[in-house]
Design brief:
Largest sheet: 7 strands, mixed
GO molecular function, one term: methyltransferase activity
Organism: Pseudodesulfovibrio methanolicus
Protein name: Class I SAM-dependent methyltransferase
Radius of gyration: 17 Å
Strand content: 15-25%
Strand order of the largest sheet: 3-2-1-4-5-7-6
CATH topology: Rossmann fold
Helix content: 25-40%
Distance between the termini: 31 Å
Structural class: alpha/beta
Keywords: Methyltransferase, Transferase
CATH class: Alpha Beta
Number of strands: 7
CATH superfamily: Vaccinia Virus protein VP39
Shape: globular
CATH architecture: 3-Layer(aba) Sandwich
EC number: 2.1.1.-
Number of helices: 9
Length: 247
């Protein structure tokens, strides 16, 4: 089955109401998709240091990483409304080792070699030129630091429809449209591998995350030695495992 060309999503600036709705949707995935990514980042990174979440949205992944590591985590996003909700979420969770600041993912506002771990989740498909974003992440990451990138993957029209209707079974029509648009704006597996080659990460960092996502993961040279498990409800543990990077 042929895969259609990449089609970028429409740029929509979210206000506070839209950001709150986005936050509500995000909460549905905290125990599976997000918990698996948080667990991956924490175990690929050093036990302590400065970490950066690029395109943090309403902050749940940054909060999760901060909660399960000894790091000081910074999340950046262009939307002040998203950041306001992220700060409220961190306060409600009682997480103090996280901060949220306004920043452009395409021009990350930090010096070279600043962070011990840099990560982003479902961010690449929002960027017209994702290679620039990855190069920026590598620039601000220390040479021995961890870099973890996860995103949706672009599929054939048939597989896209199957995914949207299966995994979006409880979605309304608008949510299904947004999911479909996100898939079509994503890279294919081969495009992701080629991107890893161009930025110097190499294809060995590529892996699949279940059937919906793919990951580029460079472990830190001095990654933590103790295994951290992000706890979820018993009935969600197997599903979460599909989204944890394999050692």
């Amino acid at each position: 089955m042929s895969i259609p060309p990449r089609k970028l999503e429409e740029e929509v600036m979210m206000g506070r109401e839209e950001a709150a709705a986005y936050d509500g949707l995000t909460r549905k995935f905290l125990d599976i998709l997000h918990a698996g990514f948080v667990e991956s980042v924490v175990n690929l990174a050093p036990a302590q240091g400065r970490f950066l979440d690029v395109g943090t949205g309403t902050g749940w992944i940054a909060i999760g990483v901060a909660k399960h590591s000894g790091a000081q985590v910074t999340g950046i996003d262009l939307s002040e409304d998203m950041l306001a909700i992220a700060r409220m979420n961190a306060e409600k969770e009682g997480v103090r080792n996280v901060e949220f600041v306004k920043g452009n993912a395409s021009r990350i506002p930090f010096d070279d070699d600043t962070f011990d771990a840099v990560f982003c989740h479902n961010m690449l498909h929002h960027i017209p030129e994702p290679e620039g974003l990855v190069r920026e992440m590598l620039r601000v990451a220390k040479p021995e630091g961890a870099v973890v990138i996860r995103d949706l993957k672009r599929l054939s029209k048939f597989m896209t429809a199957l995914h949207v209707n299966l995994f979006g079974l409880t979605y309304n029509e608008l949510m299904k449209k947004e999911y479909r648009d996100s898939i079509m704006a994503s890279l294919t597996e081969e495009e992701m591998k080629a991107l890893a080659d161009r930025v110097g990460l190499g294809r060995d960092v590529f892996s699949r995350a279940f059937v919906t996502h793919m990951t580029l993961a460079r472990p830190a040279a001095r990654r933590r030695t103790d295994k951290v498990t992000v706890p979820v409800a018993l009935n969600k543990r197997l599903a979460k495992r599909f989204y944890v990077c394999k050692d």
